[in-house]
Predict the structure.
Amino acid sequence: MNEHSIGVHIITKDEAELLPQCLESVQHADEIIVIDTGSKDSSVLIAQSYGAHVITMDWENDFSKPRNEALRHAHTEWILMLDADERLLTPLHIVEEQLTSIDSHIQAITVIVDNLVSKQPENRVTHQALRLFRNNENYEFRGIIHEQIEASIIEKHGLSSISNSDIQIIHLGYLPKYLYNKNKVARNHTLLQQALKEMPDDPFLLYNMGITHCQAGQLEQSQHYLEQSLLLAPLNQSYRANLIRDLCKIYLELNLTQPLDILLIHELNRYSNYPDLHFLLGQSLERQGLLERANDAYQNATSCTIGTLNPRYITEMGVAHFLPHCHMGMIAQQLGRMEDAARHFHLSLQFNPLYIPSLKGITSSFHQLDVPDKDIHTLLQQLVNPQTTEDHHLIIEALKEIQAHQSIVNYSQQSYISNPRILLDVCTSLITTSRLEEASHLFNQQMPHLSYDDLTVASQMWAICQWQQDPGDLQDNFYVNMPLDMCKRYEFVDQILQVPSDTTKHHYPTDILELVISLVRHSVLLHQLEIAQHLIEHFPEAKLTYASTLYAQGDTMTAADILLSLLQQDLLDDEARIYLGEILIDKGHYSQGAAWFEQLLQTHPRNEKIITAISICYLHLAESYITEALELTDNQHNSPLQEDLHSIRSAILILNRTGWHTTINLNRTTKEVSHD
Amino acid sequence: MIDTHHPLISLCMIVKNEAEHLATCLESVQEVVDEIIVVDTGSTDSTIQIAQHYGANVISFPWTSDFAAARNVGITQAQGTWILILDADEELDHSSKEELKLCAIHLEYEGFFLRIHNHTGKEKSSPTATVNPILRMFRNRPEHLFRGIIHEQIAASITEFRPNAALHLSTVMIHHYGYADHTVSEKDKIQRNVTLLTKELRRSPNDPFQHFNMAVEYMRLGEHQKALDHIHKSMALIVPDTSYGHLLHKYEIRCRYALGQIDEALNCCNQAIGIYPEYTDIFHLKGAIFFANRMLYEARSTLMKAIVLGPAPTHYHTETGLGTYLSCNMLGQIAEEVGHDSEAITWYTKSALFQPDWVQTSNRILRMMKCVDREQDIPELLANHFPLHIQDTEIRNEVIKWLALDGSYQAAQSLISQLDTFKTDESEASWRSLISSDHPFISDIPQETLTLAIPYAYQFGQENKAFNLLRQWEHRYQNESRNSTDILHSTEQIQDEVLEPKQPTESLMNEAYHLGRTWIALTDAILSRNEPSSPHYSAIHRVRLMLPLPRIK
């Protein structure tokens, strides 16, 4: 073997699914050694087909044993340690080149491990790990789990014998589908349990036990082990920072903001250059409505410079740039500082131009700043620089935020109309802007290419389109590509709409009513109110949907009238009741609002939304009395009541930041107001 | 009264129209001073008669816009071994009489610093804003004369002739009244001082002390940039160990901070700490700057240093509470901001222990105990940490009432039941009977009873009764409110000055306040139903801590 030969060592047990992609990435290695610890699937055969030297041995609840066994069989100068669920991303010949130019005193090299955690490309976690080292009989793996060779190398040659590299490995094992497919979690659990029996106070084992529980979705147990580990972990241990990050993620998941805040206020002083911790603190504070402090935390996350980042910190992609900037943008929006918001979203997009929350954010900020839709569209084009239909769809998603129908409609000329999601968005905009014929034309053309789900939505939109164009019946081409049961339902509705409505009570089948309700919602969303009204004349059951959709679309006054009439007939659901309460509060009728929500509380005694609504009413009432009291005092400026009023107003502000109120489409509301 | 032998202490004062204060001042030095010399610069009230009543030698001296000149007229007349300087609005503390007499025996010293306690009000019991050691008693020598038009200073002339003069920091306590609101805050007076100081600085532009004084006046006027300029000039001119050197640093930090120069202010703090490592005020100030800029960790560790140092050593100008209750209190606020409730309770408890007036802080503790669901521990906490307070019947009753107003009915009850001499609180009895009766509303139930009764009923499952009472009460208030505007209206029309609208206004104000208070108590009661597992629990918890506290007066 030559002086820079590389051997790849892999341990397997039932890895048939991922092993091929792993071996593929290293097939030109000088040697591949696979230690199989009892696969029942085709792992061994696969390994052999790639020319690997396969050694089978019994599984003895200790990862170091098979690793050290592999070392005994190694013939190469260098050894690359891989897992079956990993893949070498850097081409092997480049790795070899790097090795030829390396100093002879260097014994081992760290590589970058990219852990994919979900399908979204931005959801990845990276860290550095020691994976490449010289073959030396003095080196051995230690630890029954998360086995490491580092300690034995450092003992012999010191820390300076290890250097960092940008060689990259992709790890797929954290993707949910692989985590649950394989029983790795259960295996690790058994392993750790045994080890903990012998060393119950080993912080690293406790840490790994916490991780294992977390992977199994048992967050409370995970929290317990991580907290135990944190109590025992020495301050100089490199995994301690990661342990804190993992614990905080669990706290956040369990909504335990208080222990998170307390922990991080101290630990951030120690790990001030760990962006993930700042980011987690920011998320916790943002959730509590402490926007200014959350903003500080995000700002700190962005000032952690990647270059000086401790390589051992496990860090999430974007946590030092596009994620915190996006959050700062959203905070600025909440505080009404639109220029700041736009600036932060723009910064965020500099780092990741395809990040949809930032695209939506920058779009709505510029919209609020009265930038014309056309210019916003141009900006989005520049930022995203769309290459694929996927990219175009991102732009449309952003434009939908501000109902820039005119801009979306322009997409119909392009070929990517064949993307069904874009088709539906474009048609929505066409109908909304009353270009019904064009929409009909597109539906007619594209119907045959749609999946069942898309067809369901498209046919509703098309039906509304046809009724709006011609109050007569639906045309024949409407039914051409439709499954039979769907045809029957539309024919039924279409016939009912032909006869004049009367006051007699009809009982229609449930599937018909479901269709009508959906049609009514779509009619309102597409601004085709005549159709919606026509439908509810014949199907009064859909009135509630009509009113609720109007409400969410910002026409709250029309909605209120209908909701009140439905209230008299006792036809409101809880959601609609909440809408009515919200209207009372929005109009400043706090006494009535309080009484209304108190009634709702009777049936939902622990509902946070209702509790918040009631307390907001109470606080407004308190505010008005204290204001009156203040007006009756002699020295208003120095009165302690000023302080009380300030506290009350801050309390209302924080409560309103919890998002208890239904989000109402503001675009429509502003239009509505300007009509008045 | 005056010693026929060689007099030991000569009190020298300059006065003009001080009839209001002079008697208190002279009374306080009876049997301490052996001679009183009063230089009057043109009183038109009974100042001179009062001075003479206490046996003072009164010298009339026309005002020449020069404080030092007036002071020196008095000093040159003094026969005593020691010159004691007091102003008419000052008073020697009773307990310091002996110490001052003892000082006068120590002839190895050239002078003594006395501790001037600047009170914000006109009473000895009013809070002390600052404590300032000032050279106020010194050996009577011809060369010991005052310099400076205002803030006339003696130290310069003493150290000039005897650079090694021994000056002693005594603990003699002088009370100075009306420091904040009465005397000094008048803009005219500050403007007058600025004019005088400008004149003085034109004459001696390199006098660091006058630059310092000018800075103080500008700070009072809120002109921090100008103040800063004079501070820097003064800093460049002073010699090491100047008595007010530390103050220059403190004021520099204040000015920087007021000008929004946060980083510079923090730099100044570090500089000052380098020179005066035991000066607590700087640490507190630094902590406060960190806190205001939401740097909670840094604020916390800096304030902890202030606590470790304790009150500043006697030769520093210091504000009471720094290093003790004010620092603890701020640490409590920081812990609250962090969300560390139990730590906040600990700091507030420490703070309350330091404080003579503990009510406000203890109320904060009680409120927090309720919010963290530890209402049942309140009696024990009070007994363990504040046994002396809680044994006082008056304070105890006050606490019980406050607890009930804050919705901690159970804690209030258990405190009542612990009373040795069982004494039923009248209002307590009335609100309980109110909710148990079938027809609860009587038109003239006092507001406080209703404020207690309604949240009580609401908390303990009688919401309907609570709202019934509240609606009727609101109704009563609206009627009263309408009547009172009618009265006001009618008085305007018939110009009847016999009818005083003042009375109804005050009761109406109380009524409105108590109604507001009741709604706040109901807010707390409803928010306390939110469960820890709900998504915005922590935000709602913070809102509860944010609600205004009951005010007993």
Notes: The first strand of chain B starts at residue 9 and ends at 15. Chain B touches chain A at residues 294, 296-297, 300, 337-341, 463, 467, 481, 505-506, 508-510, 512-513, 515-517, 519-520, 522-523, 526-527, 529-531, 533-540, 542-543, 546-548, 551 (CB under 8 Å).
